[in-house]
Fold this sequence. Notes:
Layout: E1 5-10, E2 14-19, E3 24-28, H1 29-34, E4 62-68, E5 71-76, E6 82-86, H2 87-92, H3 104-107, H4 120-125, E7 129-131, H5 132-137, H6 139-152, E8 154-158, H7 164-171, E9 186-188, E10 204-207, E11 219-227, E12 234-238, H8 239-249, H9 251-259, E13 283-285, E14 291-294, H10 311-329, E15 336-338, E16 345-349, E17 353-357, E18 365-372, H11 374-383
Bound molecules: N-trimethyllysine (M3L), 2-oxoglutaric acid (AKG) and fe (ii) ion.
Residues 182, 186, 188, 196, 198, 207, 209-210, 297, 300 line the site of N-trimethyllysine (M3L).
Amino acid sequence: MSHSVKNIEIGSSLVTILWDTKVESKFHYIWLRDHCHCSECYHPLTRQRLQNTYDIPDDIKAVSYELSGDRLIFNWNHQDHKSEFNVNWLFLNSYCPVLILQEDKIKNESSYLKLELWDVAKIETELPRIDYLEIMSSDEGIKKWVLKIWKYGFCLVDNVPESPECTQDLIEKISFIRPTHYGGFWDFTSDLNVNDTAYTDIAIPLHTDGTYFTDPPGLQLFHLLKHTGTGGITTLCDSFHCAKLLQLENPEYYEILSKFPIPTHSAGEENVFIQPSYPRPILNHNYMGELIQVRWNISDRSTLNLPLDDPELQIPLFYKATKRWNELLESNKNEFYHTLKPGQCLIFDNWRVLHSRRTKFTGQRRMCGAYINRDDFTSRVKLLNLDREDILATI
Ligand SMILES: C[N+](C)(C)CCCC[C@H](N)C(=O)O
Ligand SMILES: O=C(O)CCC(=O)C(=O)O
Ligand SMILES: [Fe+2]
């Protein structure tokens, strides 16, 4: 939706714009000058700021302005500089007050990048999946794939050649692999080759990986290459959906899961007090209070030994809240069972979708896969969707 300017009032340190929606925005001159996107101030290709913000004098002021159509030009009292803005850009980036959230596209439930939260009943009717060749043959295929992962938190890839090489080629269509102490592209079995229960045959409850990292892996891909025995079935769970259920049912439990810092350590380490340590809560939110990351791993939770405001109250509350949280995750409404098989890859958002190896397995079992950084996944989603006019810079 485009907006028009009804009135402009030049003040001593800011300009007030009255919009067609009858609301007013205030833009400080320093802000406007700092956000000048002319080719001297802002690299036209790399979209990076060139000007030094701190060369702008404190008393920067617009001496005049010109409004023609959707172009609004300010003439500054410094270096004879002009800054041209698109009025829609100003409306969407208004900060005093923030107006973008009033935009239909953001509120519109069917907005292009809206997450589709799911439970088992819903996801079984529309399993996100795509064929290997569609991904490998075009950017359109990659775009379709990453959008399914973005919206549903996971996606199956069918008809993948049953080799680690083809599996690595596939995941690298999204981005480069995130190396960790487990290696880059992993090809593993139950031989404790790495000191972690993933390298055994035991059951591992629903979890996210890397809760001991300041930046847990964004995506994780599995390709089961071989399994001669039984068991080891995978389950998935949309933790964002469960968080919504918990918030509705028990705001106090939601609150403590959003605040209580969890010490973690990777297998083999112990919880050594190395300052600054980075314990994070289970439910992590962005500056707008939106849930953006769940960190949940019972195996890697370390000793709860952090200073708390009221440990007598908080420790029992932590156990009650996480017990209810775990019940929601493992409810047969929310825990989706899926048997991995050679030729089919599973990729999932490790900040949102929990995974498990639900039961102990027997026999020979060989799995390969890799991690991708969250930022590299998000960047891929953005860059593959730049052609969409209707995507507001809201990621
Ligand atoms: C690398 N590979 C995925 C095979 C195993 C990683 C083990 C992850 C660890 N248990 C955690 O939950 O973070
Ligand atoms: O072996 C599996 O099915 C998955 C084990 C696991 O959770 C992992 O490797 O992160
Ligand atoms: Fe895992």
